[in-house]
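Budget justification aside, the reviewers requested a transparent look at the raw inputs and outputs of the sequence design task funded under Objective 1. We therefore reproduce one unedited record. The lines immediately below are the structure tokens for a 297-residue chain.
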């Protein structure tokens, strides 16, 4: 594929990374990918990408390196060290980390990358698996305006709402706020579902009318079927939301912001995980409300 688009290396081909990297290929980008599972690399190759045998191999020739991994420790593992991105990417490359990690990790990464002549943006996303597949993600970005401008055409192949929120780490801060709102919203919906069902109301009808009023939300629209069918196949795992609630409660504490309801929901997420539901979708907060209300789940 010969074109003037930047060459992309993609590290991390999970629930989000796979469809996102495929959307870049569809948009005409040349994408070389690396991840821990060979079948995910095979999927990228089948979609028209190129597989790499290591991080070093993936990033060697890349103009833009995109990372999408679960949490701060994984970002540090792929970025640092002799086999990592910073040692093997070329000077002037742009590293766009789309993982959801602590704001401080993003700030530190940008600082260390700058010593190697590598520019960094933190660009976490919201919209879940469906948003990734449909390329309608919300992308909150932290970093320099010039780097944001350079990355914007590429980000437009992945999402719909793309906003520079401030300096390095700002994208992660906004993402943490996003996860706070989503978790509290799911919890409120879950409580309503159990209340409605125990009251003998037609749940489908109730959720339809609620979603048409002030109680309506993207969360309810996206998760309504999960609630109705008790289908908790993960679009976004409780394990990850647990990690994110840790990020937001810790970051809020550092800046002196009180999150009373967020703290309660963080504990409910932690409890769900302790009960073995960490691999389920975050809509499974419903299971926690059911248990508290005396149902066997």
């Amino acid at each position: 594929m010969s074109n003037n688009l930047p060459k992309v290396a993609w590290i991390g081909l999970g629930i989000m990374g796979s469809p996102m990297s495929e959307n870049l290929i569809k948009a005409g980008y040349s994408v070389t990918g690396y991840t821990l599972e060979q079948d995910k690399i095979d999927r990228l190759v089948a979609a028209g990408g190129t597989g790499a045998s290591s991080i070093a191999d993936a990033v060697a020739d890349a103009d833009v390196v995109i990372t999408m991994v679960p949490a701060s420790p994984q970002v540090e593992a792929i970025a640092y060290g002799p086999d990592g991105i910073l040692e093997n990417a070329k000077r002037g490359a742009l590293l766009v980390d789309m993982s959801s990690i602590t704001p401080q990790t993003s700030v530190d990464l940008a600082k260390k990358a700058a010593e190697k002549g590598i520019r960094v943006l933190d660009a976490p996303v919201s919209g879940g698996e469906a948003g990734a597949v449909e390329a309608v993600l919300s992308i909150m970005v932290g970093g320099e305006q010039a780097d944001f401008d350079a990355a914007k055409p590429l980000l437009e192949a992945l999402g719909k709402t793309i906003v520079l929120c401030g300096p390095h780490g700002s994208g992660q801060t906004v993402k943490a706020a996003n996860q706070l709102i989503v978790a509290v919203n799911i919890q409120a919906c879950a409580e309503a579902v159990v209340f409605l069902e125990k009251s003998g109301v037609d749940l489908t009808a109730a959720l339809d009318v609620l979603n048409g009023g002030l109680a309506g939300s993207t969360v309810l629209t996206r998760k309504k079927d999960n609630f109705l069918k008790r289908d908790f196949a993960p679009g976004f795992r409780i394990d990850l939301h647990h990690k994110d609630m840790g990020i937001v409660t810790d970051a809020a504490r550092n800046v002196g912001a009180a999150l009373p309801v967020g703290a309660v929901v963080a504990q409910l997420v932690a409890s769900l995980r302790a009960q073995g539901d960490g691999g389920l979708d975050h809509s499974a907060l419903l299971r926690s409300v059911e248990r508290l209300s005396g149902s066997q789940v």
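The longest helix spans residues 170-198. The mean pLDDT is 97. Computational costs for records of this kind are itemized in the attached budget.
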